[in-house]
Amino acid sequence: AKENGRNDFQLYTADFEYQAIHKLTLHHELLEGLQKREFILHYQPQYDLASGRIVGFEALVRWRHPIRGLVPPGEFIPAAEESGIIVPLGEWVLREACRQNKEWQDAGMPPLPMSVNLSVRQFSRRDLIEKIAEALRETKLDPKYLKLEITESMTMDVQRALSLLKELKELGVDISIDDFGTGYSSFNYLRHFPIGSLKIDRSFVWDIADNPSNAAIVASIIAMAHNLELQVIAEGVETIEQVRLLREHGCDEMQGYYGSPPLPGSGIEELLGQEGG
Ligand code: C2E
Ligand code: CA
Ligand code: CA
Ligand code: CA
Questions:
Q1: What is the pLDDT of residues 136-186, one digit of tens each?
Q2: Cβ of 93 below 6 Å from ligand 1
Q3: Helix axis angle, 212-227 relative to 240-248, nearest 10°?
């Protein structure tokens, strides 16, 4: 509607209005979905590259929409961020991930850390630490089994990030920098931040087998992380070639379809049952 002729303006306006209405509807639906408990978590296993064993999970939210079916987060997280609904949604995710992890431990599954994504909005709220402490207390999960994934953009305000991360560390919660390499980070801050690991973004990993410059980037991220005594996990690992290269470079862990896609809780229980014997 935007390319041709004189009626551009009107068409564009109509388009714009349509988008605005669509957006409002989505915001409203998200809120309703939260009240109706339409959100669920899937869990993607993380593997130790040397042993091949499962060493953790990442909780990933999905929306079980009554009409649209299972909606992936890429289709609603941006709207949830924009509307602010990410805050109560993120709190639900945090609590549900802790609850599930504790339930697995109580059932005798090997205790493993669960990673939870934090959004910018959550990270900038004053009650963040309180909410995390509350989720841990109420689910009785030992804080060492919770890991929070933040992105480089959340560390732009270095002073604030530093004090928040210190508080999280005091709580006993581990922190990982997600999508590493895609944001601007001053490598300098990494030395000062009390974080445990870096997650190399999928965009560097997917073609390491035939893109020498991405292979070089991945190799240097791993070397730098190890110099700083950080663990490194590669995301989006899909092929055996990628696994071999990552092993060669000494990467610690991997997450991706090669190991397993994100699964509902029952799928994880089956997987760990098989692994156990
Ligand atoms: P992310 O944190 O980078 O999560 C990894 C994404 O990569 C997931 O997509 C996962 O399903 C996908 N993935 C895993 N292995 C592979 C692979 O081998 N190949 C490919 N092509 N993709 C793989 P998903 O579940 O659609 O989530 C997308 C993004 O939505 C996440 O990216 C994260 O930024 C956001 N997200 C998901 N759950 C939450 C949440 O609870 N809170 C917040 N704030 N964001 C979330
Ligand atoms: Ca993540
Ligand atoms: Ca990621
Ligand atoms: Ca990513």
A1: 999 999 999 999 999 988 888 889 999 999 999 999 999 999 999 888 766
A2: yes
A3: 40
Verify whether ligand 1 is closer than 6 Å to residue 257 (CB atom): yes
CA angle at 70 for the pair 69 and 71, rounded to the nearest 5°: 105
Please compute, for residue 252, the number of CA atoms within 13 A of its CA located in the half-sphere on the CB side: 17
Report the nearest-CA residue for atom 23 of ligand 1.
236
- The strand pairing partners of 39, in sequence order, are 63
User: Which residue puts its alpha carbon closest to atom 30 of ligand 1?
Assistant: 73
- pLDDT tens figures, 79-138: 999 999 999 999 999 999 999 999 999 999 999 999 999 999 999 999 999 999 999 999
Strand segments (E) across the chain: 39-48, 54-65, 69-71, 114-117, 146-151, 174-180, 197-200, 231-235, 253-255
- The encoded tokens of residue 172 equal 């006993």
**Which residue's CA is the nearest one to ligand 1's atom 27?**
73
How many whole angstroms from 6 Cα to the centroid of ligand 3?
Answer: 45
Q: Can you give the pTM of this predicted structure?
A: 0.93
- 84, 78 contact by CB (below 8 A): no
Does ligand 1 lie within 6 Å of residue 238's CB atom?
Answer: yes
ipTM of the complex: 0.98
Confidence of residue 2 (pLDDT cuts 50, 70, 90): very low
